[in-house]
Amino acid sequence: xxxxxxxxxSSPSGINKKILDQVEDVxxxxxxxxxxxxxxxxxxxxxxFSADRIIMxxxxxxGSFPYTFKQMIDESEWPSFFKDTEIMLIGTSNTTFGNxxxxxxxQHVLSWCGANLSSKRICIPNITPETELEENWMEKxxxxxx
Length: 146
Fold this sequence. Notes:
Blueprint (H helix, E strand, L loop, with lengths): L2 E6 L6 H14 L4 E5 L7 H6 L2 E7 L7 H8 L11 E7 L7 H13 L3 E2 L4 E3 L10 H11 L1
Parallel strand pairs: 1-2, 1-3, 3-4, 4-5, 4-6
């Protein structure tokens, strides 16, 4: 059984949690062991170390990613527990590009830590509380999960 770690940053509208719940629904059909966190700072090193794959839903924060993700990485010790871990990034933004820059920045940081990043990034633009995962995004998540 593959162990997944799902991480996001909470938002006032709750949309990132909603997207994470939808991701969980897609993965749950794969008979997976899933741990979910709405606060990156609540993730412990043992959680990261025991995970086979990680999916991060990353909201845009000042044109990049929230500091809580960087702090989570900084606290993962060295050598990083993210080393050799498969990670998929999903960017969310209420602007046109879906946090492309933020997940690109995060991808560089995680690459430096030795993580194996999926080339199938998802950028969800113009996000609202009514936003649902589109079929092509769910397909990318299914491919990562297989």
